[in-house]
Amino acid sequence: MKLNVVVLLLLLVSTATCCPPSDRRALLAFRSALQEPYLGIFNSWTGQDCCHNWYGVSCDAVTHRVADINLRGESEDPIFERAHRTGYMTGSISPSICDLTRLSAITIADWKGISGDIPKCITRLSFLRTIDLIGNQISGIIPNDIGRLNRLAVLNVADNRLSGSIPKSLTNLSSLMHLDLRNNQISGVIPTDFGRLTMLSRALLSGNRITGRIPESLTKIYRLADVDLSGNQLYGTIPPSLGRMSVLATLNLDGNKISGEIPQTLMTSSVMNLNLSRNLLEGKIPEGFGPRSYFTVLDLSYNNLKGPIPSSITGASFIGHLDLSHNHLCGKIPVGSPFDHLEAASFMFNDCLCGKPLKACLRN
């Protein structure tokens, strides 16, 4: 009798510390929609307890519900080192993933061959903090009601084949800190109320087909440190308020159709990496460089800038890489830092620049 009680208790304890059968079924259905022929990462997905030793699966310590799916095709995990290769996986993300109702993180990244849509039901997973699907061939749209995920801090769907526009509801993501939509086929405009994303620190939207203007509200996001809108079809002028943002360090607007003049505020801002190349900017390079001007990169090439290089630029505390080529600049290149370490390529294809490192200026 006592032995039976002990066995029963052991069974109850074992059952209580296993993942629920419903989570196991959902994981196996998710697995069945994917094909991974080289590494055998799903070989460990056997047995009744998906909380122990199932590759890439983590469970909550208290509820024993599946909390994280972390499957990366590029990793330093021994399984990759033994195979001497990165991962490759085909198939699609099954809607069965939405049956894992306590998921807080979905990372299915850099598998190169996973296609199909992002399951619409993913927006019902109210505990999600991370969606990382970078480096696949996922198509379709970002789910329209993505804004329901009020805990979401990371949304990374870069390097896929997503189309459609940025959902209007995305600006409801009050916890979002990292937004990466790079290198897709996303079109339409950046929502005018983008500034509602008050926790955002990185907005990476480059390499898409986004049109319209840079919304003024974006400049109200206090924590925003990195903005990359390059390689789109943006037009209009650069909001001067971008140069008044407290922690903005990187601003890449290259490869658009932005016109007008360069705001003077950008010359003495917190921005250290400023790329405005390959646009339709005109007018003069603003004066106003000074001790607060610190640039690891300042690229103004391939625009319609005219006039001389401002003499105040020698008062900048640091300029590492400067490119003023392919404009209509004229006059003598200033002497001193940063010009004493720059090569001729930084100044080529202007109208009449002269002086080191180009040819000497003609005497009157």
What's the short version?
The protein has 364 residues and is mostly beta strands. 9% of the residues lie in helices and 22% in strands. It starts with a helix and ends in a 10-residue tail after the last strand.
What labels describe this entry?
twelve-stranded mixed β-sheet, 3 helices, elongated, disordered N terminus
Topology, element by element:
Layout (H helix, E strand, L loop, with lengths): L1 H15 L4 H12 L1 E2 L21 E3 L6 E7 L5 H6 L5 E4 L12 E5 L2 E4 L14 E3 L21 E3 L21 E3 L21 E3 L21 E3 L6 E2 L13 E3 L4 E4 L12 E3 L4 E5 L9 E6 L4 E4 L10 E6 L4 E5 L19 E3 L10
Parallel strand pairs: 3-5, 4-6, 5-7, 7-8, 8-9, 9-10, 10-11, 11-13, 12-14, 13-15, 14-16, 15-17, 16-18, 17-19, 18-20, 20-21
Antiparallel strand pairs: 1-4, 2-3
